Amino acid sequence: MSKLGRSSKQNIVLLIILIALCVFFFSQNDKFISMRNMMNMVRQSLPNLLLACSMMFVIASGAIDLSIGGIMGLSAMFYGYLCIWGVNPWLAIPIIMVFGAGIGVLNTVIMEKLKIPAIMATLATWIITAGMALVVCNAIPISDELVKPITAWNSMKFFDGIPLALFIVVAVILLFIFLEKKTLLGKYAIAIGGNDSAAYYAGINVFKMRMIFFILSGAIAAFSGMWQVGRLGSADPTIGVGMEFSVIAAVILGGVNIKGGEGTILGVVIGTLILMILTNGMQMMGIDSFFQQIVTGIVLYVAVLVNSLGGSKKKISKKMVAAKE
User: Fold this and answer.
1) CA-based, 20 to 30 A from 325: which of 9, 146, 223, 227?
2) 114, 131, 115, 118: which is closest to 69 by C-alpha?
3) Which residues share a beta bridge with 163?
């Protein structure tokens, strides 16, 4: 295990924690590992898993995207109105994803060209998009029958009960692992997050790379908003409230350095699964939702602390090596 990299060691530890949580909650309720409960968790947590993958690239590159919750809400409302206006419900899906990608482009331009920090730029975008989602519908969800066809994909099942959600999750995770390992996106994200100036002088187009990362984040946020429309049966402007915090928590828990320069897709997937299992397990144990938030917050705090200590040790070891040389 000493030959493994820091990220690999973190992933192994996270996997052990995930298995331990599954064993514990199963001991409390034997229905926890039932097929029905597992598939319900996948349906409910699909947005978290997809958004965590795209957020990994954003945070690893030294930025952050707080606008995903607002994009989800506004995308859900625009999807509802497109259906009412006569656009085919399935054709509306790629149209809304392009809309979400466009917001990602806007975020990048504001950050890179106007030199506004990512946290402030995306916070402003979140406030604007969340506000627009409420304004366009007067804070009233769209429950028109024309929106209902998309609910079909929430009930689609294949191979004797496996929901469509699982295939979507697996396909997207594999796509992002491919982007991370087999393309330059993964290497460039880590390089930019480590030192964006050095990356720029090394020939990396920092503006272009960050735009790609934010386009992915915006498009997946838009898709997640529509997925929630299909799951709930209506376009609700508050459909993405709080999503940014749960996704960022999962990403940090998954070993991505909040300052950038480190992280893996596998890590954020395991981190998301841990929070998913933790939430579902506490619900099945009848623990109050307020206490669930407290537990999740403590887990996040510990994850950040471990992340920071690991990063500090890494820097110290590098300085020691440099001193010896």
Assistant:
1) 9
2) 131
3) 157
Q: With contact defined as beta carbons under 8 Å apart, do 72 and 225 qualify?
A: yes
CA distance 316 to 323: 10
Amino acid at 128: I
Asked if pLDDT for residue 288 goes beyond 90, the answer is no
Residue that has been written with the tokens 């002088």 in this structure: 201
3-state helix, strand, coil in the chain (%, to 5): 75, 0, 20
Tokens, residue 168: 């979507």
Q: What is the DSSP string of 16-75?
A: HHHHHHHHHHHHH-TTTTSHHHHHHHHHHHHHHHHHHHHHHHHHHTT-----HHHHHHHH
Average pLDDT over residues 180-209: 92
Q: Please state the rounded mean pLDDT for residues 57-63.
A: 95
Tell which residue, 225, 262, 234, has the closest CA to residue 57.
262
pTM, 2 dp? 0.89
DSSP-assigned beta bridge partners for residue 235: 142
pLDDT at 17 over 60: yes
Interior/surface letters 10-23, b for 16+ CB within 10 angstroms, e for the rest: bbeebeebbeebbe
What's the rounded mean pLDDT across residues 185-192? 93
Residue pair 217/68 in contact (Cβ under 8 Å)? The answer is yes
What are the structure tokens assigned to 74, written together?
A: 């506004």
Directed axis angle between helix 289-324 and helix 265-284, to 10°? Answer: 150
